Every structure is written in structure tokens, then in C-alpha cells.
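ok so for the tutorial part 2 we go from a plain amino acid sequence to predicted C-alpha cells. step 1 is just haveing the sequence, like this:
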Amino acid sequence: MVGAVLTILFVRLAIWQLDRLDERRTQNALIEQRRDASPEELGSLVASFGRAPADLNHRPVVVRGVYRHDLEFFSVGRTYDDASGTLVATPLELADGTLIIVVRGLVPSGTPGPPAEGFAAPDGLVEVTGWLDDGEEPLRIGEPDPVDDVIRSISRIDLAYIDRWIDEEVLDVSIILEVEEPAPTESVPIPIPLEELTEGSHLGYAIQWFGFAMIVMVGVGYLVWRAGSPRAPTPQIEEPSHHVGA
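step 2 — the prediction. this is what the C-alpha cells look like for a chain of 246 residues:
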């Protein structure tokens, strides 16, 4: 009975992992489809898909505005592929006065600022092309509470957190910068690579759970076979004969 329950449990866990794998593959296909599209104006994307970050995420976009150098901030200790350093993000003010966070890239650790010394964003009207991103998951450990003064360094690009301390309207999607026109007159931060699409460990876990189920089935089958197989008779030990001498 216990063996049957364990086998069913392990099989169900394996099937659940296969379902997760299918979901991941579907999500990856959607992301690839969005990334391969041509950049569109932010207003056109919002008109077509709405303002929900989930509907805009990963779509190529082009926006025009003016960088707010006074609101630039850092995220230190970041690593992407083989590059590590300080992540620089600069709000871009759009024509309607709203701000969209532009993640411009990595600069060397220890770069003075913000604004990042030697890596200034272009002045005046600029056209930014990149991919929309819904930001990073919150990381509250050791994060200071927002205050009236501008916080110039945060651990993650948490858009809801950023909106709490910038006293202006901040869109709930950001832009991972690909190119900007006009080009900066100073050094350009290392661009942030797009997130690599993987299938995760779901297939490996599914195989593992199926393996556990097989082990239980074989083990239970062996025990059943042993219990039902005829046992060899116990050999009888003959008593030695005693002869009484005449």
C-alpha cells in the first residue's frame, strides 16, 4: 500500500514538472516573438496592448525625451556574464512630463556619482531605443526606506520602490537601453544583455521523480515476489545412531 502511494506521488510530481516545462517553453516562445518585433513608439504599444507591465514586457520600444541627470541612481555590485560593476539608471522625462527609467548599463566599480562621472547621458532631446522591462523583484533586506531626499543607490531596479521616492509620475515599466541618439559624448556604459532564455531544471526533476517511482515499483515488486515464492525445505539433521556394545 505504501509503495503504491509513493509511486503515484512520484509520478504526479514528475508530471507536474513536465507541465512546468511546457509553461516555460510557451513563455520563452512568447518572449522570443516579442523581442524579434520591430521597435514601436511607446504610445503605439500602450494603445495596442494596454499599460499592464506584463503585456509590455520584452517589447522593443523607441521613446523620445530628456534625461533627468538630477535623478540618476546607481545599483552597485552587479554582474552580467563576465562583466561586473555599477549599474547606472537614468530617468527619461517624456513630453507629457512622466518619467521612464532607462537602464543604461554597467560602469566600473568605484565610479564617482551619480551622475556617473565620465559616463554622462546625452543632454537635450534624445531618442532611446531598447526593450521594455517590468523591473526586478524587490529585495528589501537592508534597503533604506524612501525619504524626501533622493536615494542615489539601491540594490535592485524595483520600479514600485523607485516611484515611492521620486516625487513625480514614474511609469511601471523601464527600458533596457540598446542605443540612444545623439550618442553620448563621454564613455558609454557596457550594455546590459537580455536575459538568457532557458528551460530551467524541470526536465531533470521530472526524470528524477520518474526514476524514484521506478525504484519504488521495482522494490515493491521484488518484495512481493520474495513473499510469494516457495521456500526451500529446511534440511533435517540426522541424529547420530548410538550402538550399545555387547
